[in-house]
Amino acid sequence: MHYEGALALDRVSLRVAEGEAVAVIGPNGAGKTTLLRAISGLVPWQGDILLRGRSLRGVPPNRIVRAGLVHCPEAGQLFGEMTVRENLDLGAYLFNDARQIQEDLERVYALFPRLAERANQQAATLSGGERQMLAIGRALMSRPQLLMLDEPSLGLAPIMRERIGESIRQIHQEWGLTVILVEQDSTLALEIGQRIYVLDSGRVVREGTPDELSRDPVVREVYLGVS
Question: What is the full DSSP assignment across the chain?
């Protein structure tokens, strides 16, 4: 597929089983974000994308969300002038059941207690780690069955990176969500992903388990930065 006049993805094929955590790693410009945007229906694509065997061709983004596939974009793309609670409420815009929305909110607050403490604070005043918590929390309010996370550790201090990583593990293991994690932090990706795809120049160049890729000398040197 082409994006803004350039070939962004070329014959990319990946599969994600229900309940699985899959990570996509690769350098800047590899096409990782474009991949998630294509799956979300935000950019045009060629080929086919199947969700539980049903094609997403021509399906608008709001219907993709309603089908249970939710994209948490890089840097959150929050509404800075709105409060934490208002941003979370926006995540539930497709739903009308007030009781269920409140239960979803309490579950998000239990995952990220800091959001409950800052419920009435403007999103623009949060720290980077808090904004990432809010971005993930807002995505969870959309009741995903498959959650796609784009660079959730980007720009975070190590302690906050660990906190976000632990929350993703909890979402996958305890909440039972299927996860696609796009990460430039290969270490975090290998900690969370049960299978890993390596994307470079718009193509999948490697696929395997964390253990398999950790032993691959090319992956170790070129993508993990170890020899």
Answer: -EETTEE--SS------TT-EEEEE--TTSSHHHHHHHHTTSS--SS--EETTEE-TT--HHHHHHTTEEEE-TTTT--TTSBHHHHHHHHTTT---HHHHHHHHHHHHHH-HHHHHTTTSBGGGS-HHHHHHHHHHHHHTT--SEEEEE-TTTT--HHHHHHHHHHHHHHHHTS--EEEEE-S-HHHHHHH-SEEEEEETTEEEEEE-HHHHHT-HHIIIIIS---
Res. 7: pLDDT tops 50: no
What average pLDDT does the segment 119-123 reach?
98
Please tell me the predicted confidence (pLDDT) of residue 3.
46
User: What is the CATH T-level fold of the domain 2-76+139-223, as seen in this structure?
Assistant: Rossmann fold (3.40.50)
Contact indicator for 206, 213 with CB cutoff of 8 Å: yes
pTM: 0.93
Mean pLDDT for the stretch of residues 142-158: 95
Cα 106 from Cα 147, distance rounded (Å): 19
Closest to 11 in 3D by CA, of 207, 204, 195: 204
Cα dihedral 121, 124, 128, 132, rounded to 10, equals: 70
